[in-house]
Amino acid sequence: MTEPRRAPLAGVRVLDLSRVLAGPFCAQNLADLGADVIKVERPGTGDDTRAWGPPYLRDEQGQDTSESAYYLSTNRNKRSIAIDLSTPEGAQAVRKIASQCDVLIENFKVGGLKQYGLDYESLKDDMPGLIYCSITGFGQDGPFASRPGYDFMIQGMGGLMSITGERDDQPGGGPQKAGVAVTDVITGLYASMAILGALHERNRSGKGQYIDLALLDCHVAMLANQTLNYMTSGVAPGRAGNAHQNVVPYQVFKTSDGHMIAAVGNDSQFRSFCKAIERPELATDERYVTNSKRIQNRDTLIPMLEEILASRTRDEWIAAFEPVGVPCGPIQTIDQVFDHPQVKARELWKEVPHPLGGVSPTTANPIRYSDTPIEYRRHAPTLGEHTDEILREFGLK
């Protein structure tokens, strides 16, 4: 009988010295893939996000516990050890744990771990196989390297807020941040990818290496086509509200009872769209026959479409568009998202046992392996929950 295959990162041990979002999100990704992630926290307070509430996880009597929803979102499948790095004994204990780990993740300010002897230069000679990932606001060099960096300010500095929000000439126009900390999340994803690449390379060379990741760098890279719009044209894109800079019609439309999204991605879909709205002649109009021409003539096309789409309900239009292959959909609140039949079918709401709350909800990891599925082995740990266990494991107690 064939033995079941192990999780992709089974046998990999990760030391997580990070807090808040980008680093913990990266470490959670690795933990979901099977790595043993040891989260080091300050005694008494722990990760800053433990106090970022309400909301907090509620116990079986409906009372708030000490675990914030924010903290729970990025720390499942880990073990927590509470150690004071500022003491020689604490720093030495973490160094010993690091010596038996494959990966170390940290997001201290540049040079912040040197005073504890836990920076890469202090570890690399004794731990040549260690993959050491530093996450900072601006990277390890450059004129801003010593400055703190937070998601919100990077969204502004990195250009996202110049292209997000309603146009300046429209009511409510002006800069707008994204509704989730996208810079931290994308940095966590880049960090996960960088670590996986370094682990793969180590299989060939036998050597670890240092990874320097900056929120600003990841944010600029995330802008994708918008940066290339500028780099190829010399014109910086501006805010377009809920419209697309490079595709028309591809935006939010008001219907008679609410709003919907129509995402017409090519000329064939535009022909289907025009047939569905009972205006087939628009698809052969020289002004709109190709996407390039629709962009040039956006100001005449969109008002016509807005008037047409306002004549029926959202669901009537969705029912007309879906059978002919026009991408479209509603704008849902998060409670509606989890009530959606597709989200239910994909089981994106998970629950794991929790010592304080009975159970703790968690959003499913979107990775779907055929033979080594993601396992939800552990709840996000309570502060120092595994301290004694880990100290014994590493011969420190």
UniProtKB/TrEMBL annotation:
Keywords: Transferase. The keyword Transferase applies. It comes from the Bacteria. The keyword Transcription regulation does not apply. This is CoA transferase. Residues 44-64 are annotated as: Disordered. GO terms for molecular function: CoA-transferase activity. Gene3D superfamilies: Crotonobetainyl-coa:carnitine coa-transferase, domain 1, formyl-coa transferase, domain 3. Coiled coil: none annotated. SUPFAM superfamilies: CoA-transferase family III (CaiB/BaiF). Pfam families: CoA_transf_3 (PF02515). PANTHER family: SUCCINATE--HYDROXYMETHYLGLUTARATE COA-TRANSFERASE.
